[in-house]
C-alpha cells in the first residue's frame, strides 16, 4: 500500500508501506533525486515537517530525520522558523563530482583502462556504496 503523494515542493513523493526500505530512506532518496534533477530548484521552500508528514501519512519524526540527513548532505538548509529550503550546496556537490570525474578519467587514461571497464568500475563502486563517504 502506497502513501499519498504531496503537492507543491516534493510533489510526486510516494511512500510504499510494503517496501522493505524504511519510509525515511524512501523520502530521502526521492527528495534528493528531485533536488539533483533540479525538479526542486535552489531556494525552494520544503513543506513544514508536520504538514509534510500528514500529507504523506508518516510520523513527523520520520520527516524530521529525512530533513536532518538531507541537511547533513548539504542538499537542504534549515533557516529556523522560516523553514527548510533547497540549498545551493547541491550545485557545489555537482561541481565537485564533475571535478572528481575528470580526475578519474585522467587516471583511467594514464593506466590504459578501457572506457567501458572504467564505467563498470564506477557502477560497481556506486552500487556497493564504496564511493559514498562513511556516515
TrEMBL record:
The keyword DNA-binding applies. Residues 21-89 form the HTH gntR-type domain. CDD domains: WHTH_GntR. Gene3D superfamilies: Winged helix-like DNA-binding domain superfamily/Winged helix DNA-binding domain (1.10.10.10). Keywords: DNA-binding, Transcription, Transcription regulation. The keyword Transcription applies. Pfam families: GntR. This is GntR family transcriptional regulator. It comes from Plantactinospora endophytica.
